[in-house]
Amino acid sequence: MNIEKIKVRSESGQVMEVVVYSKRVESIEVVLGAGEHSVKCTLTPTRNGAAYAGTIMGREIVYERTRDQVKADIDRLNPVHREYRR
Length: 86
Description:
Shape: globular
Strand order of the largest sheet: 1-2-3-4-5-6
Number of domains: 1
């Protein structure tokens, strides 16, 4: 099983690598930390769709990829789950 990790930027500009718990176009759930000190956060698309943002323990984190880029990533990683027409 491959563990997907993404880089997010915090309010202070610090870049952190977090583990992806689930990834959909509507939202991305990530886990910060490890073990019993880990915290789960949901990132949702911003109004203009240019990034995904969420708050964790009162701090904002941002994943700087568009909805289209995330959809392309999902299709690339899981080709079986692509939508198709009849």
